[in-house]
Amino acid sequence: MHRERVSDNVYWFQSNVYAQVTAGVVVGPKWAVLIDTLALPEESIAIRDFVERELQTSIRYIINTHYHADHTWGNCFFPDATIIAHTRCSELLYERGIPALNDAKKRNSALHQIEIILPTMTLDDGELLLQIGKKHLKIIPAPGHSEDGIAVLVVEDRVLFAGDAFMPIPYLPDGNIEDMYAFYENVREMSLENIVQGHGEIILRGEVEPSINENLYYLNAIEKAARTALRRKSPMDFLASQDVEKCGKSRIHLGGLAAELHKQNLEFAYNTALKEVDANKKQAR
Ligand SMILES: [Zn+2]
């Protein structure tokens, strides 16, 4: 696990085991807030040990940016923490997380100590402000990657923990492309020092605008590829020819997952475009 100090009392953690997934800690005078947990038990436990031994404090709140396993399955290692998330996150962890974990446990004995812990302090479309010492954490909706996405702005430091709504390569199949466009435009207005992406490296101030533009370019490129595929005799062959570099993304690490995420994005965009065509046909009748 990598660890870095982002600003005063703000820390960042990145897995070197699974897809460069990230988590954060904000430390106050009496307690600390954890933003997401990491994918494997030992990584979440290593964060807990760092907070307790080196920072001499403990985690009182966990904010889950969304329900996906690599961000929430470490909740159980912080039994005294109150978990904050979107209302849908709690529902989705119950509906999908619990069966997914039961299934995963059959295949991987390293997961036996994990238990799904549901968020109990939840928000819907509004915002939530959490004060920690002199800092304020503003929790805002961040859909796009998943319907339950939230992001955390460290107001005074202009650091945004964006969850997977911001990734080195946007990932859509559990989300919605229009929401993602809207979220990026929202982020553009925030005048940020850093974006902590749900996976990958921290985006520094000078890279914020180019990163937003690059991701918007990518989203446009996959939508365009999907529309072109609709007009082809063999759409799947055409989609297979549209590799990640052609869509403006290269040199993305993510533990080697980029090509697979890209393929799934293209299929998702194609199926979305196909549904729109069918809906239009129905209307025309
Ligand atoms: Zn995710």
Strand percentage: 15-25%
First-last Cα distance: 57 Å
State the shape. Answer: globular
Derived from helix and strand composition plus strand pairing, the structural class reads alpha/beta
Task: Assign the CATH architecture of the largest domain.
Answer: 4-Layer Sandwich
Mean pLDDT: 95
Q: Helix amount, in percent?
A: 25-40%
Question: Ligands in the structure?
Answer: zinc ion
By DSSP, the count of extended strands is: 13
Q: How many whole angstroms does the radius of gyration measure?
A: 19 Å
Major beta sheet summary = 7 strands, mixed
Count every helix, treating DSSP H or I runs of 4 or more residues as helices.
7
* CATH fold type of the largest domain: Metallo-beta-lactamase, Chain A
Domain Metallo-beta-lactamase: 20-199
Pfam families: Lactamase_B (PF00753)
InterPro entries: Metallo-B-lactamas, NDM-1-like, RibonucZ/Hydroxyglut_hydro
Organism: Candidatus Desulfolinea nitratireducens
3D architecture notes:
InterPro entries: Metallo-B-lactamas, NDM-1-like, RibonucZ/Hydroxyglut_hydro. It comes from Candidatus Desulfolinea nitratireducens. The protein is of the alpha/beta class and 285 residues long. Helices cover 39% and strands 22% of the residues. A 7-stranded mixed sheet has the order 1-2-3-4-5-6-7. Helix 4 packs antiparallel against helix 5 (205-230). The longest helix is centred in the C-terminal third of the chain and has 27 residues, at 258-284. The protein is globular, with a radius of gyration of 19 Å. The mean pLDDT is 95. Zinc ion binds at residues 66, 68, 145, 164. Zinc ion (ZN) binds at residues 66, 68, 145, 164.
